[in-house]
Specification:
By secondary structure, the chain is α+β, with helices and mostly antiparallel strands. The chain is 28% helix and 12% strand.
Length: 89
Amino acid sequence: MPTQASAPEPGPAAERLAYSVDEAARLTGLSRDLLYDEMRRGHLDYLKVGRRRLITRQHLEQFLGMTPGHQPPLPGSTAGSRKAGADAR
């Protein structure tokens, strides 16, 4: 008996390309209100598809500071104080 084509089965969350805000909240452990606030402030990028907001895996990685070569600033530090020789006086 041939199987009918159906919607692809969702794999592990890490393999998905994009997430709804609710899914991104569950995946990251952050609240959906916080994610909406960060999107509104421009700190978290997203795609608008119709009325839906989709957050890609790359958007989440960038927001959480997980992109290769990107180091999130240390608490209490400023960007200018990390320059070479900034402490040499």
